[in-house]
Specification:
Distance between the termini: 22 Å
Number of strands: 0
Structural class: mainly alpha
Number of domains: 1
Oligomer: single chain
Strand content: under 5%
Length: 129
């Protein structure tokens, strides 16, 4: 039984990575040759994934699941959760824009890692439906 669960987790993680890479590749193609526009496109993908995470998290809550993020778990009402999630998403976006001005390589690595992680979270929440 444990082996099946581990294989399922690996499959979900693999699929989320594939989706994240695909979304990143599409946005990079759409952004043209300007590297800063490609980074902005990556941030917009992150924003869309955050919105998807919010939507599917709210649907999962309706089915009895709980938030695993300890910061967001402190929000006791739906309104507080939405405000917390939106605030953290905006701060993440602003922080990565600031980081891009300081060190482009680190900002790209953080953006790619965030998009892959968010792809996993959204895919996992979607599967809970």
């Amino acid at each position: 039984m444990k082996k099946q669960g581990k294989l399922r987790t690996q499959r979900v993680l693999r699929n989320a990575c594939i989706v994240g890479v695909f979304i990143g590749a599409v946005t990079a193609q759409c952004a043209g040759d300007d590297i800063s526009k490609k980074f902005d496109a990556s941030l917009y993908v992150m924003d869309v994934l955050n919105a998807g995470d919010l939507y599917f998290s709210m649907r999962a809550f309706d089915n009895g699941y709980q938030e695993l993020n300890p910061v967001l778990r402190m929000a006791r009402t739906d309104t507080a959760f939405v405000l917390s999630k939106v605030t953290l998403s905006v701060l993440n976006h602003i922080g990565l824009k600031w980081m891009y001005k300081k060190n482009r390589t680190v900002a790209w690595c953080m953006s790619i890692a965030a998009n892959i992680a968010l792809s996993y979270v959204v895919y996992k929440n979607w599967r809970l439906q």
